[in-house]
Design goal:
With 857 residues, the protein is of the alpha+beta class. The protein is built from 19 helices and 31 strands. The protein has a nine-stranded antiparallel beta sheet with strand order 1-8-9-10-11-18-15-14-13. The chain has a five-stranded antiparallel beta sheet with strand order 7-6-12-17-16, with helices on one face.
Length: 857
């Protein structure tokens, strides 16, 4: 199952075996790809058209969405919908490890070396490749330049004086987030260059992990018999990947930092004058013995590039300007450069660092009049002058960061019981923590001083936890622009719970504040038509808002459904509250959440239409599968209900609420009887009890409730005994169901190489009654694999998850943009999605956290 070599054909392996031996310090584990690689599946397209039989459930919402889109766009041409189904993002098979920490904006550097995806503005993506953003090498022998090459495989129409002829067959890329390596052989030069990219993404670190910077450590190795002079030049356009890139008013200037406590560094500052969020970008090189640092504040990235190219070629250095440039006029492009030059003896090796740091300390959301401070400003200030300090701090601290990263990753990477592909995917899927439109904000202490137009949940005193650790948000996806989408975060949150638990708690506090409050302003409801209140009392919001509006203030950007009656959101809140208590063992946290948990469970009980203790679905798509109709008692929502009841029993016990404990225990007893009677068919739990043609479909994600409570220690192990009235599902039924899903949804679907299809019929054919029933959801597959591992089906779990890795990293080029879903046909949906972070639930299971029993106190 799945090694790195599966990415390549036999001839490619043989051709590159020698190349793969080169490169300074490149680890064995990770995602490795030659720069001339072509993915087998190149025709993947966004958003499949529904089958004819699926249209009856979708025609109305398609019609209403289209006219809603037209009306809003006509009124405001700059408006963007929270999901733009009419303009989906097309697949580009180019992305690599993003740069920067958490919540500070990100820049993605692709596996071919391009700076190709920008998210410096909060929650807004640009896919503009700036051709000037490159590294160039100059080799000189006996005082003459013998080789000068842009280290890129592109052939642009601009910068025509530059040498763009590098052969991609001489280089490879290796990704292991938050680091990446690119190894270049220089043909005919006997020189190898290794670029190591490092970003400050550090588990359990709540300072450095927020820093907007990355360092490129270049290692040059001379395999020849004579000494050479090497120069490395880093060029960068004054841009942030936004509509302001050519708006004028930008300028560059040199900088130098020589302060106690940090390494001396100099370079170029690129001042970018965005209309509401100015940004300064620093390109810097630390001063080290034997390395000459030079730079240029100005060249035209839209021209031929002749001046700077010839300047480097002349003597392997750039000029060292002392004055700022003039401000640009509208339509004018501006770029700067830094250069490190050094001698490299025969057999020698030399390291030099380049740092890229950006300072956009204050942000405004598109629909907001408020200004927010990014989290890193607590240490680096908010006046917009921190870029030099950030650059100096980065070059001084990155060795410590790398030691922390290696100590964190090494036990997993060295564990030979984990498949090689899994060790790679586990860390690389974490890219979304920095590149998920992520924001990490300093919270304001309301404490009675609030604006009247704030919603009720923001008029209360800000919880101390949010004040201490900040307000954190990441989007549902690059295309699904909603912060902290709760039904999806339910799966992804294992990554935060394991690595940055205080940020997970912050998200929980933010949601908890909204539950007992309401916002009675009106929004359209596109699934059925009509209008709905933005937020109803005793309900968990679907999301905390759209960056094109004002998140945290205006929640529920999602207007496809009225999610106040979604069956899963309230239940997932209870499950995550208990899971987070399981992580932190904080009874104060649990006590704060208790009245909110009671309120959402009280509302959920109103969905029990026949008074048997089991909640019923409404006959609509009223849960995370928002286009898959479900009616009556259902395996998915019913299982979540049982699991939430079990958590309420345990929470009540921990908090000494004996009366409530007995209440929830009694409801659970009735509910599990109904669940078994209505849904168990002797092999697995039916999709629902409606009696429709697909009622007995096999659902990949049906067992999510049991998965969660097993993860939280609420299911006994084989050698443990628990009171029978506290057992939720018979374990033999759980195992039988998982084996049925594995045999049908995994192994009978594309020979087990695509993950778990959401729905399968008992006859071994896909359930095609819904667009979503025939999709593979990447995050659901990872969660299913985690559940299998927790039940002892370890090999089956890895085989299940391998299908996602195979499709995303080997076949389709989805790396660092893992979609929500794909079909057996050549279609995908929603690139760059949150839910695949559920792979960390697999690691949770593998580390045996589910075996740590909760002890009541």
């Amino acid at each position: 199952m799945g090694t790195r070599q599966e990415l390549l054909s036999g001839p490619e392996v043989r051709k590159l075996e020698k190349l793969f031996q080169h490169g300074a310090g490149v680890p064995d584990q990770g995602w490795r790809i030659p720069l001339d690689h072509v993915f087998p599946r190149r025709g993947m397209k966004p958003n499949a058209k529904p089958r004819f039989k699926q249209l009856k459930d979708l025609y109305g919402v398609f019609y209403r969405y289209f006219f809603w889109w037209i009306k809003k766009k006509t009124a405001n041409p700059s408006w963007r919908p929270f999901i733009d189904n009419l303009n989906p993002v097309k697949l580009q098979q180019i992305y690599g490890v993003p740069l920067g920490g958490l919540g500070c904006g990100s820049i993605c550097r692709g596996w071919k070396g391009d700076f190709c995806r920008w998210a410096l503005l909060p929650g807004i993506y640009s896919y503009d490749i700036k051709m000037a953003n490159q590294f160039t090498v100059c080799v000189r022998r006996r005082g003459q330049t013998t080789y000068q090459q842009v280290l890129s495989t592109r052939h642009p129409s601009c910068l025509t004086e530059w040498n763009w002829s590098y052969s991609p067959s001489h280089a490879y890329y290796h990704a292991l987030y938050p680091r990446a390596w690119t190894v270049y052989e220089l043909p005919g030069q006997n020189i190898t260059l290794t670029c190591r990219q490092v970003s400050p993404v550090l588990p359990h670190d709540y300072k450095d992990s927020s820093i907007p910077a990355a360092v490129f450590v270049w290692t040059a190795e001379n395999h020849g018999k004579e000494e050479v002079d090497i120069s490395l030049m880093f060029t960068f356009q004054n841009s942030i990947g936004a509509e302001t890139d050519l708006s004028g008013g930008h300028w560059n200037e040199p900088f130098s930092v020589n302060e106690e406590g940090v390494d001396p560094i100099s370079g170029i500052l690129l001042h970018h004058q965005h209309k509401t969020m100015p940004c300064t970008i620093a390109l810097g090189i630390p001063h080290k013995e034997g390395i000459r640092v030079t730079g240029s504040t100005s060249f035209n990235p839209a021209g031929s590039g002749k001046e700077i190219w010839r300047d480097l070629m002349y003597d392997g250095e750039l000029g060292s300007p002392e004055a700022p440039t003039n401000k640009t006029v509208k339509g004018e492009a501006l770029a700067g450069a830094v250069c490190a030059s050094f001698k490299l003896p025969s057999g020698g090796k030399q390291d030099t660092e380049f740092v890229l740091a950006w300072d956009m300390p204050l942000i405004k959301f598109v629909g907001s009049c408020r200004t927010y401070k990014r989290w890193y400003t607590r240490w680096f200030g908010e006046d917009g002058t921190a870029a030099p300090k950030l650059a100096a701090y980065t070059v001084s601290h990155y060795p410590e960061w790398e030691r922390t990263i290696e100590e964190w990753q090494r036990p997993i990477l060295d564990n030979q019981s984990y498949p090689e592909w899994y060790r790679s995917a586990l860390f690389n899927e974490l890219y979304f923590m920095s590149d998920g439109g992520t924001i990490w904000l300093v919270a304001e202490d309301n404490d009675g001083h609030v604006e009247n137009n704030l919603p009720p949940w923001l008029r209360e005193k800000t919880p101390a936890h949010i004040m201490e650790y900040g307000r954190f948000g990441y989007m549902e996806g690059h295309e699904y622009r909603m912060y902290n989408t709760y039904d999806v975060h339910h799966y992804a949150s294992f990554a935060l719970a394991m690595l940055w638990p205080q940020l997970e708690f912050s998200i929980q506090y933010d949601y908890a504040l909204t539950i007992l409050e309401e916002d009675r302003s009106w929004q359209p409801e596109l699934w059925h038509g009509g209008w709905m209140h933005r937020k109803t009392i005793n309900s968990v919001p679907h999301d905390l808002g759209d960056p094109y509006d004002e998140p945290f203030v205006h929640v529920n950007a999602y207007v496809m459904h009225d999610t106040s009656d979604w069956r899963d959101l309230n239940l997932k809140f209870v499950l995550q509250v208990f899971r987070d208590y399981f992580v932190g063992r904080d009874k104060d946290f649990l006590a704060f959440m208790w009245p909110r948990a009671q309120s959402v469970m009280t509302k959920a009980l109103t969905w029990d239409t026949d008074q048997d203790g089991m909640i019923d679905n409404s006959g609509a798509a009223d849960q995370t599968y928002d286009a898959w109709i479900v009616t009556g008692a259902s395996a998915y929502c019913g299982g979540l209900w049982l699991a939430a009841l079990r958590c309420m029993v345990e929470i009540a016990n921990i908090l000494g609420k004996e009366e409530q404990e007995q209440h929830y225990l009694a409801v659970m007893q009735r509910a599990k009887t109904a669940y078994e009677q209505k849904l168990w068919n002797g092999e697995y739990y039916n999709y629902d009890c409606s009696g429709r043609s697909y009622s007995n479909s096999i659902m990949a994600g049906a067992g999510s409730g049991h998965w969660y409570i097993r993860a939280c220690g609420l299911v006994p192990e084989d050698n443990e005994v628990m009171d029978s009235d506290r057992e939720v599902l018979p374990l033999d039924h759980v195992t039988s169901s998982l084996r049925k899903v594995y045999d049908f949804n995994v192994m009978q679907f594309h020979q087990g190489t695509m993950g778990a299809v959401n729905g399968m019929r008992p006859n071994g054919k896909k359930d095609v009654t819904s667009m979503q029933s025939e999709e593979v959801w990447t995050g659901i597959t990872y969660a299913l694999a985690a559940s299998m591992i927790q039940e002892g089906m370890v090999d089956e779990g890895f085989q299940t998850a391998y299908g996602v890795y195979n499709m995303c990293y080997l076949q389709c080029g989805f790396a660092f943009q893992t979609p929500e879903a794909y079909l057996e046909r050549d279609f995908f949906r929603s690139l760059g999605y949150m839910r695949p972070l559920a792979i960390w639930a697999m690691q949770w299971a593998l580390e045996g956290r589910h075996r740590a029993r909760v002890t009541s106190s």
